[in-house]
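Translate sequence into structure tokens.
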Amino acid sequence: MLSTLILGSIFQLIVLISKEKALGQGDVRIAIITGLLIGFNNLIYWAYIAVFSALIYGLLIASKRKKFKNLKIPFVPFMVLGIITLILINL
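Result follows.
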């Protein structure tokens, strides 16, 4: 439950501060579900997997389009990638 509160509140804070330009309300819902699935011990590992895979993908797309400004990519697939990776590792 602690990981759910942490992820949900961090994502909701980002949504409120950025006025849904950085993350959307759907990302908050997925983050809450993620917290329930992975637990507190795997929270940092999940964050590394999700953020760095999104970063690498964003850099590849930006270099391909030669446009780094105003590039928008969805974050949910990378959140799910982190969940699947951690579940497979913990098996």
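Note: Residues 2-90 form one domain.
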